[in-house]
Design goal:
Shape: elongated
Radius of gyration: 51 Å
Helix content: 40-55%
Distance between the termini: 132 Å
Structural class: alpha/beta
Strand content: 15-25%
Length: 810
């Protein structure tokens, strides 16, 4: 804002004055006001920039254009100057009619009257809006630049405080370093400037490492990696490094800036962790090796103890000796359970337990569990019941073996801790969505229950609910710990609800797949068969009758052995005699076994029906009393529908010369085991321990199998290649040549590429079965050898003779 003296008197002609006014109107924004600031004249340019018409402006005060940008003092000083007759010059921001703003460079000249006082003001303006915009932009740009420079300065300072920084030219020659670079490298700045970066090379990285790095940055790309360098004193340090190429106008790198962070401590921690992991793995492998070795060493004599006890019990010993042998057998079973539990917990701890995902039948699985636990429940006179709610899918996908292991443990625990009352297993479906179902298995008992403190110790290895010296209940405490871990692997939960003297309920919740197809089961033509049921218990009799009629069998039910004999005699000569009798064992009058003997003695009948004994007791106990009764099979109460159907299929399949199969669970069902078709077969037994050879030889001999023995792998190979065998039973750990090597040698001869070879070994750790299969074996049996499982394996792998005839004909 500028003040100058008032106008000087000049003399110009009217023509000159008119020309000057015209020229001024063409160039400037002009307005006249009176001394009060009321507008008396404006030119066209004033109207254009203000967007007001001349009529809207004349008579208005100049405040009509006030933008409120300037403070009141600005205009006060301006009016003071012009009121004193002085010319005022300055820049004003005005507001146009549409509310927009514009800037004008303004000169206000007062014209004076005869008394020398202002009588009006002439304001001449130039539009400087664009200039002001550029000035503001320039000012903003300068502010941004200053801020950026300040920020860059701050960042450089911060970077220097934090990072290790160096600049090099394109040949890798160091041109600048910060203090931290000097500190970590132990070189001074003067020692580094002009040196190649190779001065820090530790020799740790291969040449290709640096070749790739330089190729990256030479192409203008940022490189990031971790580098091990050598300091001046020979010590090593690690840096996390980012190298950024700075390019010139030609787009090619002109220098490189390397920013590093010291990660030596982190690297030391990583190395310590790696070493600890290696040591832990070595310790775990040593533990696994120890467990595998101990398992083998324990199972070998256990095989002899359990096997010979089995043979001795089968030899009909005196009652006192039978009692002793029974206790030995029971103790051996308990020891084997402990060994298996220890192996399972070691597998789980090592993360080597793998789950299967295969189709299975829930009904068959529950039936298997019932068969296993029923004897213990009967010994304590406990009621045991299984229930499956209607919405539960019957055909599932998961690991039936491990699910069965959990449920057997829970049910056995319930039986162990229950002195009177019942044990109840219920299966319900919490949710069924698409191909998945969330099942809930609850195992309840009426036993002693537990306190909150006892519950807190559950699911921990080697912890029992009762830890007192006077405790009534044995066990290692491993079962629940294993069940909990298996449940976790199955992505499920295992919880418990209990109170002292109120019983206990364990609740297992797991997610399982739903099988799109039923688990295959052999069928039989129900229209061609009629069945007689004999049972004095109305509930059991009605249940069997309902199952059979629902399957389409022609069925009749009677309540005693005498009634069964009478019914059979009435139909013996008819066109529709009974094909099968389901006979309860314990009935008043003539019991089931005696009735079976009498039925089988009727040689004059055109057709002798097959007979299956139905009992709540162990089938081996029945077999001892029924060795001469000619029975065709056994069913254990409570009878599951699936087991009943499989048993009937087995009976009728054998009668038409069809090879009897296996159940979905892989074990043979209910009926006589079909071992009669093994008679006359020839098996090679390769086993280095004499007592094991004697045991297995006895078991095979009982099945009518001819046995050739070899005492090591090499002898086994020679025997196998020289003879004709239906199957080979092969031990794994033997002198001279082990069983795996022997199997590979046999498989090299194409003549024996399909001959069944079964591992029969004390190796029971994770991976042992896979090793056997990888070597070319067909199956893997672990010691101690279970006679039933041995028979099952033989039936599974020895094919039926094509010419094998049926036992009975139509």
């Amino acid at each position: 804002m500028q003040k100058v003296d008032g106008p000087q008197s000049t003399h110009s002609s009217p023509a000159e004055l008119f020309d000057q006014k015209f020229a001024l109107d063409q160039h400037a924004i002009v307005a006249f006001t009176d001394v009060r600031g009321t507008i008396t004249y404006v030119n066209d340019k004033f109207c254009t920039i203000s967007q007001y018409s001349r009529d809207e402006l004349i008579g208005q005060n100049h405040r009509i254009l006030n933008s409120s940008h300037h403070p009141p003092g600005f205009f006060r000083e301006m009016y003071r100057a012009v009121a004193n007759g002085q010319t005022w010059h300055g820049e004003i921001k005005n507001r146009a009619k549409d509310g927009s703003f514009y800037w004008v460079d303004t000169t206000i000249v007062p014209t004076l009257n005869a008394e020398g006082k202002p009588n009006r003001y002439v304001a001449i303006r130039a539009d400087i809006t664009e200039r002001k915009r550029l000035e503001e932009a320039l000012k903003e740009s300068i502010a941004i630049t200053e801020a950026s420079l300040k920020e860059l300065s701050d960042q450089k300072f911060a970077l220097d405080q934090h990072a290790i920084v160096a600049l090099t030219d394109v040949q890798g020659t160091i041109t600048n370093v910060n203090d931290k670079f000097c500190t970590i490298s132990q070189y001074s700045r003067d020692e580094l400037i002009g040196q190649n970066h190779r001065i820090l090379n530790s020799g740790h990285h291969p040449r290709g490492f640096f070749r790739d790095m330089y190729q990256t940055i030479a192409n203008g790309r940022v490189w990031h990696g971790e580098i091990k360098n050598r300091a001046r004193d020979g010590s090593f340090y690690w840096v996390d490094t980012t190298i950024v190429p700075l390019t010139g106008e030609n787009g090619k790198p002109r220098q490189y800036i390397a920013i590093r962070a010291d990660i030596s401590v982190r690297k030391q921690a990583e190395e310590a962790t790696r070493q600890a992991k290696v040591e832990a793995e070595e310790a775990n492998n040593a533990k696994s090796y120890f467990l595998a070795n101990m398992s083998h060493e324990i199972r070998t004599p256990m095989n002899a103890i359990m096997g010979m006890t089995y043979l001795a019990l089968r030899a009909d010993p005196a009652p006192e000796q039978r009692r002793y042998l029974g206790k030995i057998s029971s103790a051996a079973d308990s020891l084997l359970t402990i060994i298996n539990d220890i192996l399972d917990i070691s597998k789980l701890e090592a993360g080597k337990m793998e789950l299967e995902s295969v189709p299975f039948s829930l009904d068959l699985l529950l039936s298997d569990i019932n068969d296993i636990v029923i004897h213990a429940a009967k010994q304590k006179n406990l009621d045991i019941a299984f229930s499956t709610e209607q919405e539960v899918p019957q055909y599932l996908i998961g690991d039936p073996l491990r699910l069965k292991q959990i449920l057997i443990n829970l049910v056995n625990n319930a039986i162990k801790f229950t002195q009177a009352g019942k044990v109840f297993l219920n299966v319900s479906a919490a949710e069924v969505t698409g191909n998945l179902t969330h099942l809930s298995f609850s195992v309840s008992d009426t036993g002693v229950g537990m306190t909150a403190e006892q519950i807190s110790r559950l699911f921990q290895p080697f912890n029992q609910a009762d830890v007192s010296h006077t405790r009534k209940f044995g066990g290692t405490g491993l079962g629940l710990a294993i069940s909990k871990e298996l449940c976790h692997l199955m992505k499920g939960t295992l919880t418990v609800e209990s109170a002292p003297d109120k019983g206990t309920t364990f609740i297992l919740k797991v997610e399982l797949g739903i099988s799109s197809k039923a688990v295959p089961r052999r069928g039989t033509d129900t229209r061609r068969h009629s069945i007689l049921v004999a049972d004095d218990n109305p509930g059991d009799r009605d249940t069997l009758y309902a199952m059979l009629t629902a399957k389409g069998f022609a069925t009749k039910a009677v309540s005693s052995g005498e009634e069964a004999l009478f019914a059979l005699s009435l139909t013996a000569d008819s066109r529709d005699p009974f094909d099968l009798v389901l006979m309860d064992w314990r009935m008043p009058g003539i019991n089931g076994i005696e009735a079976a003997r009498q039925i089988k003695s009727h040689s004059e009948w055109p057709r002798i029906p097959a007979i299956v004994i139905v009992t709540a007791l162990d089938r081996h106990e029945v077999m001892r009393d029924a060795s001469d009764a000619g029975l065709d099979g056994f069913l254990i109460k409570p009878v599951k529908e699936s087991v009943l159907v499989d048993t009937i299929a087995d009976i009728f399949d054998r009668e038409v010369g069809v090879l009897s199969g296996t159940s979905a669970g892989g074990s043979r069902r209910g009926s006589s085991d079909g071992s009669e078709r093994l008679v006359g077969r020839h098996v090679l037994l390769v086993e280095d321990i004499e007592v094991n050879r004697d045991l297995v030889g006895e078991l095979l001999g009982d099945l009518g199998i001819s046995v050739t023995m070899a005492v090591n792998g090499r002898e086994g190979v020679e025997q196998a290649l020289a003879g004709r065998f239906d199957l080979v039973l092969m031990d794994i750990q033997m002198p001279i040549m082990d069983g795996l090597a022997a199997t590979r040698s046999i498989r090299l001869d194409r003549r024996f590429s399909t001959m069944p070879i079964i591992a029969m070994t004390a190796h029971a750790m994770t991976g042992d079965r896979n090793q056997s299969l990888d070597a070319g074996m067909n199956d893997h049996l672990t010691k101690p050898i279970n006679p039933d499982r041995l028979t099952e394996a033989l039936l599974r792998w020895i094919p039926a003779r094509p010419a094998q005839s049926a036992r009975l004909t139509w």
